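Most newcomers find our protein records easier to grasp once they have seen one. Read left to right, the backbone structure tokens trace the chain's path through space. Nothing more is needed to start thinking about how sequence determines fold. An example says more than a description, so a record of this kind follows:
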Amino acid sequence: MLFPSGEEGWHPDIEIHLGQHGRRRADNVTETLFYAYRLHIRPEHIQPPNIFRAARLFQQYVVDAWASIEQGKLVWIRNNQTRLRADSYNNLTDNVINENRELEQTGRSIILPSSHTGSPRYMYQLLQDSLAICRACKKPDLFLTMTANGSWPEITNNLLPGKFDIFSSYICQCLIN
């Protein structure tokens, strides 16, 4: 239904094409790159926007893509703890094991790196960065709130044909709730 021409989904063996300068970072397309390409709107004569017209099915596709990417990252982190030098966190591991006896039964804990979005170490790093900015630049004294009108030309010009009614009713639902 979403892909009437029978397009394939992501798999690890998709070869990456050379960039503008003839260089490439990797041999194969990552899952993140695949879905970023798939979720980019192109002119109708190049690729029809069938997927973007699928309403809730499109939303489910995007959520499933995100979950699949996130799961792949977590599996990589689990399988590459030595590469991440997780063994250098001995004190952290010892403290966690002492607090949580279940880890003693498994014998191994998995430590998320600070580069993993949403992990406790990532959030702590953001906090530290924010505090350092406040120390260097003083406390913020201005807080901005941005609003948008759903009938502004900048918004309506970028909607797919016939989607203004759906967009405006969605905005109204969000405002009511």
